[in-house]
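Posting for a labmate who doesn't have an account.
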Amino acid sequence: MVLVSDRPGTKKITGLQQKFIYEINTMSDAENRFLEAQQMMWQCCQNSKLKAVIEPHIQETEQHIENLKQVLNILGEQPQRITCDLATGLISECQKFTLLAADNPKILDVGLAEWHCKIEQLEIACYRGLIKVAEQMGQNQIVQLLEQNLHQEEQTAQKLEQLMMQLVQEAKQPEAKATAKAR
């Protein structure tokens, strides 16, 4: 169990705006971690189409971080990275996978696309929740910033999902040849 004292700089949440600010700060931490992870994925992947999806999203992620800073500014708050354990866990699993699949570039690319898609789905769920709260708080400017992030996350997820099937087919081809030779 995590105690508040285990999270330096955090305080008890007693209201909706405090909850929202806490979640924006954890989302900012997640986006920063995902930015680093995307840079690592881009370096590790061999498939040019996968690189072509990751590369522009790195720049979009940098803008997402700026949008979250702007949200906090609108609320009169200073950015404070609060560890997002979900992001940390996803990235840790992706790093383990990358090490285990490093000897097979096609499998590595499939896995990197899948892990990136998992990250996008987490971000989509988080932004949808943040948008609903911002709407209830009457924060239209904040809603616009968060919707911009959400839209880009959804587009990237869609591209990754489409590409994954192609990567799976490419990864299966050598297996089929090896199986045919073994017969």
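Reply:
Got it, the structure tokens are right above this. DSSP finds five helices and no strands in the chain.
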